[in-house]
Amino acid sequence: MTADHITLPAPAKLNLFLHITGRRADGYHTLQTAFQFINRADTLHCRVRHDGELTLTPALADVASDDNLIMRAARALKAATGSSLGATIHIDKHLPMGGGLGGGSSDAASTLLALNTLWETQLSLEALAAIGLRLGADVPVFVHGHAAWAEGIGEQLTAITLDEPWFVVLTPKAHVATAEAFRHPLLTRHSEAIKLRDLNAGVTRNDFELVVRTLAPAVDEALQWLSQWGDAKMTGTGACVFLACSNQGLAADILAASPVSGFICRGHNRSPAHVALDQWLRMHRI
Ligand SMILES: C[C@@](CO)(OP(=O)(O)O)[C@H](O)COP(=O)(O)OP(=O)(O)OC[C@H]1O[C@@H](n2ccc(N)nc2=O)[C@H](O)[C@@H]1O
Ligand SMILES: Nc1ncnc2c1ncn2[C@@H]1O[C@H](COP(=O)(O)OP(=O)(O)O)[C@@H](O)[C@H]1O
């Protein structure tokens, strides 16, 4: 059975820690981080078009359609493969933008996975990740779809298996642009490199916290409040902050008491996008 459309989630990620270890000659920073996916996602719908056109609805506030990472991913895949096909794409946006949850990068990765399948262009995950890296440093981990230890500028990935706890994620109303956080004079750029085995040794932090707490008081307040319950951290360059909890009930109780809005979710080592893609392939292609 064939099908000309597919729906995939584009899940968020958390950076369980984030250390900046240096700066390259081209200005990009080298870092160490651990990525885990969560079951909170945008939803991407793609349908094949035979006229070669690419369309995307709805428009996102403050992002021109041509700059939307979904359109950029679709165009990049078309250029890389020479496919004559197009797509009608619809995105149900649920993830806050610029929150450090990687929604834009995940939308791009799910677009690459969806169109590579519908167009039957058969690029490997490595090839899709290389296309994705040109769109953003966070895209490859979503393409590969496994929780990962990351080095380099975030593109050198080692798959890891982590506990899959419940999390409380708070979404303070603040927007910190990634490039602005990276160029800030207060950013520590020389954290000592750690080993994977130190991940749970209590020695990790997010080096962006100092900068972002200074730029965005709402993030500072959210971190202060959540820290009373445990080792709260910010994800990426913020603004979202999170805390791992021993069970769902505790996560729900903390969220209910929080003065800042947010959600609870579960950590996933395998990306929900890959789970959905495998299901689709089993139904339609095998
Ligand atoms: C910090 C992280 C951690 O996961 O996440 P976010 O908070 O953005 O989600 C990422 O490394 C962000 O990746 P991503 O959001 O894809 O950033 P990009 O679009 O590649 O880069 C935006 C800008 O940030 C700076 N940048 C980015 C990555 C890096 N390793 N060094 C940098 O200096 C560069 O100035 C670049 O032009
Ligand atoms: N499909 C998209 N979804 C979200 N943001 C997008 C998208 N396409 C482009 N962007 C741009 O990318 C920026 C970063 O988005 P996002 O990935 O949500 O945040 P972060 O990098 O902080 O995790 C947004 O502020 C927006 O300008």
From TrEMBL:
The record lists the catalysed reaction(s) as: 4-CDP-2-C-methyl-D-erythritol + ATP = 4-CDP-2-C-methyl-D-erythritol 2-phosphate + ADP + H(+)
Q: Does the keyword Ubl conjugation apply?
A: no
Q: Where is the GHMP kinase C-terminal domain?
A: 196-256
**Gene3D superfamilies xrefs:** 3.30.230.10, GHMP kinase, C-terminal domain (3.30.70.890)
Enzyme active site = 13, 138
Which residues does the record give as ATP binding sites? 96-106
Q: Which domain of life is it from?
A: Bacteria
Ordered alphabetically, the record's keywords are: ATP-binding, Isoprene biosynthesis, Kinase, Nucleotide-binding, Transferase
- Which InterPro entries does this entry report, sorted A to Z? GHMP_kinase_C_dom (IPR013750), GHMP_kinase_C_sf (IPR036554), GHMP_kinase_N_dom (IPR006204), IspE (IPR004424), Ribosomal_Su5_D2-typ_SF (IPR020568), Ribsml_uS5_D2-typ_fold_subgr (IPR014721)
Pathway-wise, it operates in: Isoprenoid biosynthesis; isopentenyl diphosphate biosynthesis via DXP pathway; isopentenyl diphosphate from 1-deoxy-D-xylulose 5-phosphate: step 3/6
One of the record's GO molecular function terms: ATP binding
EC assignment: the record states 2.7.1.148
Q: Which family does it belong to?
A: Belongs to the GHMP kinase family. IspE subfamily.
This protein is called 4-diphosphocytidyl-2-C-methyl-D-erythritol kinase
Its organism's taxonomic lineage begins at: Bacteria, Pseudomonadati, Pseudomonadota, Gammaproteobacteria, Moraxellales
Q: Which gene encodes it?
A: ispE
